[in-house]
Amino acid sequence: MALQLSDHVTMTSVDDSVVLLDERKGRYWQLNSTAAGILRELVAGSRPEDLRDRLAAASGADRDTVERDMRDFVRQLQSAGLISGR
Question: Which InterPro entries does UniProt cross-reference here (predicted)?
Fold first, then answer.
């Protein structure tokens, strides 16, 4: 299953960041440029493994660290009810 925004969430780009609005709770979430890029890519259907490899290569970070950080980020968004899938 692909990652997708929940039906009650609106995503708006602001410069290189993203703002998510949870319309049910009236809460805003602002994502920095890195988090925004990860979310955009995953919602667009990019494979997490490919994204992990690109991020690790671009940042010089360890692939396992990048994978763990991406997994934690996705879990946080899922826990907040902002996304579903994967």
Answer: PQQD (IPR008792), PqqD_sf (IPR041881)
> pLDDT confidence of 48, banded at 50, 70, 90?
very high
Could you give the CA distance from residue 10 to residue 2 in angstroms, rounded to a whole number? 17
Report the C-alpha gap between 79 and 65 in whole angstroms.
Answer: 21
Nearest to 17 by CA among 1, 42, 40, 46: 40
pTM, two decimals, is 0.90
* CA distance to 16, 27, 71, per residue, from 68 (Å): 23, 26, 5
Q: Which domain holds residue 34?
A: 4-84
Domain count, the chain: 1
Q: Any idea which residue has 């826990």 for tokens?
A: 79
